[in-house]
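Re: export button greyed out
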Amino acid sequence: MRRVGLAAACLVMVVACGSGGGGNNQSATPKHGGTATIALESELRTLDPLDSSLLVEREVFYNMYDSLFTIDPSLSIKPGLVKSWDTSDPVNYKFTLQSGVKYQDGTPFNAQSVKDNITRYKTTANSRRKSDLASVSSVEVVDDTHVTFHLKKPDATLLATLVDRAGMMLSMAAVQKGGQNFSLAPMNAGSGPFQFVEWKRNDHLNLTKNPSYWKSGLPYLDGLTYRAIPDVNAILAALKTGDIDIARTIAAKDVAGLKADSGFIYRSTPALGFNGFELNTGAPPFNDPAKRKAVALAIDRYAILKNINFNIGVVGYGPIPPSSWAFDSNEKIYDHANPTAAKNTATGFSFMYKTTSDPVLQQLAQLMQAELAAAGITMNIQTEEFATYQQECANHQFQACGVNWSGRIDPDGNTYAWWHTGGDFNDSLYSNSQVDAWLEDARTTTDQAKRKQDYDNAQKQIVADAPYVFSVFGVSAQISSTKIQGFTLYPDLMIRMGEVWKS
Amino acid sequence: MLTYVLRRLLLMLPVAFLVTVGVFMLIHLTPGDPALIVLGEDRSPQAIAAIHQQLGLDKPIYVQYVIWLGRIAHGDFGRSITTHQPVGTAITERLPATLELGTAALLWSLIIAIPLGTIAAVKRGSLADYIATGITVAGVSLPNFFIGVVLIFVLSVSLRLFPFGGYIPLGQDPVESLHHVVLPAIALGTAGAAINMRFTRSSMIEVLNNDYVRTAWAKGASWQRVIFIHALKNALIPVVTIVGLQIGGIIEGAVVTETVFTWPGVGRLAVESISDRDYTVVQAIVLLAAFSYMLANLLVDLVYRWVDPRISYS
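Workaround output, generated via the alternate export path:
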């Protein structure tokens, strides 16, 4: 979820850059056997991709279910359950499926199964995948291993969308057998490296090795145990006591200590999200563009990176992070803090900044308060309980609201919903017809060079107009004991255990 | 006696009704929208509206209340808004963990409180009394989350004597289960121990000044007989009251401790459900907590009679 996955994930996620890129870390001979315990920073709500909305859920799904497409650490689209594809016709995507794949319940994965899954995601009442698949009008079964996705209009983001939950394939027989409790106990529903055993909420979730996994020789581990530990300090403690083997997040302040400890591995790669805060363009004082610009000029991103994030991550200039092919390294409209320029733009006004009680977010708010004061701008801090804050920000009842974004593989996921007029996350009520046109064009054009140009243009305009003040780009990290081997680090924060082994 | 119990049980009904009104209004009037929580990063105006309709949140609040009251009158607490798990299952699944923790914490508090309280009363003004009083002040003053964090840091992370958090059911592995419950029980029970000790001490002092105790001494009864048979049993009446309330308060007492120790009990479920605005679960847990208080009160009144035969329920 956006804010939790942010307050908890991104902000803390803004852990360490500089310690190497993505990819695999070790190169010894893999060993079969053993189990690994993984920390989740919040409890799951569902084990069904259909109604999932949490980052931690996706992380578990990637180990139970296979998607139609996968990514490599550089975010290129790679084969998954789809072996090869032809997207030369922009409204009829032809996919060739892997043959011989079976779900954990023994039923075959085939073209009919793809059609049934997509239909289920598109039509079930409580499906959260409807907007992901909005561009798909129908799925045609050509033969057992060929399907055609008929689109309402060209959609350049579809393959990236099918990497995630909307592309995860489940055995329909298992779904029907699970009935109303399927989301709590998806028995043998996937085709992934591990299969469901037991979920005791607030305690543990156990998965066991899929003995008939279609990728021969995998997985190496006999099973996985997930434990929800909702406090970053407790996650570190559990890592140190050996109660968990791997985690996604620890507090930024603890990263240096863990790096120095030879019993642990800490590696990171730039993540997909962005951090910063929204300014409400629909109400005073930020309906005045000059005041938004003044705030963006006065914020010291380098001080935030150093003091709040302990130099983990990099300074953020816009919505598209360095991990993306659409990243524009030349866009630095607001770079170092410039209180003089801010004062010359607008000064002497005050506003209310909404945030939650997380101690790190409180420190961030106080730091920005001091930075803005240097430009003669008074920032008052309003601390709210999460659900209240979330509701007020979503309903545009704010002047400034600290919100981060966990990010998506395709740059569309970091831009369209946020700054297209009427977008689902456009809390700031930002509207610019030129930006709308660029974002729409980038959605429907398959030429990547053209898309990059659209995103460069849109990003420059959004950053300059400052409906959102960007501060820091975070990282995706491997935080584990040295026993964890063969782990591949991806920018999307997901802990994929299919090829991991324990020494 | 039976008539008394029945009368008390009947009197619970209006209290329970008021509790339903209170809990329903409080949670529904608290800002926050469960639809936004449920949807997270996948929200859209259509999806929000669909969830509001599905949960009946688009109806006036009094209509929602009447529907809910009708359902719980039939024993249907509904399903969790966030996980779709039946609320009854969600709670009963976690109740054993909370009961084990609560019982262990209570035992810890009594093991500490009664001997120390008795010593402090008998040796009033002595060093032992001052030490016991010091422990009391510390126990009451230190919040249980702080005690929990210190215990985790010292005994779990540094000395590795106890596991960090987690719960093993008693039936599955009794030794490991007790090993896991020690730290959270100490964290949760220490404040109760301090209070119980203070009550034991003051009540004991009062009893020791009674004429019948003086008579017992004068008769030449042994000190063990005077302290334990004549004095302590009578001194425990106020302690029974306070312990009874502590039993009733196990669920809310466990809220913080369960979160610190990642203990999968009802307390942690309550915390998560409140922050998720999972109305159905919160309402059921508060009702359960209220009922356990009412039942504990009744139980305390019945135990009085055993402790002090002069009390009659006729």
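Confidence is low (pLDDT under 50) at residues 1-21 of chain A. The button fix ships in the next patch.
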